[in-house]
Amino acid sequence: MIMSYDTLEKQIRMLPEECLDDVSHYIEFIIYRLRLRDKERQASDLTEFYGVLNQMPDGLKMQRELRDEWD
Fold first, then answer.
1. How many CB atoms are closer than 10 A to CB 43?
2. How many Cα atoms are found within 13 Å in the side-chain-facing hemisphere of 5?
3. Of 19, 20, 58, 70, which is the most exposed, with the fewest CB atoms less than 10 Å away?
4. Cβ count near 36 (within 10 Å)
5. pLDDT-based confidence at 1, cuts 50/70/90?
6. CA pair distance 6, 2, nearest whole angstrom
7. Do 59 and 67 touch, CB atoms closer than 8 A?
8. What is the pLDDT of residue 53?
9. How many separate helices (H) and strands (E) can be counted in the chain?
10. Mean pLDDT computed over 20-49
11. For the chain, what are the domain ranges?
12. Is the pLDDT of residue 69 over 80?
């Protein structure tokens, strides 16, 4: 169910004052996740710089994954 901004604002206004800090932290977390997702998207799309060259896998990342597999 998608909630409109008006409905969301009304629900926030009904909350007691002591809950506003929690709501604020949650909103900041959502904004952080959105920015992180945008950064990951930008970092993964290197075609602008490298065209259609095949990307080599990151050796250190592969080593970490293999090492962590045994933990």
1. 8
2. 0
3. 70
4. 10
5. confident
6. 12
7. no
8. 61
9. 4, 0
10. 85
11. 5-69
12. no
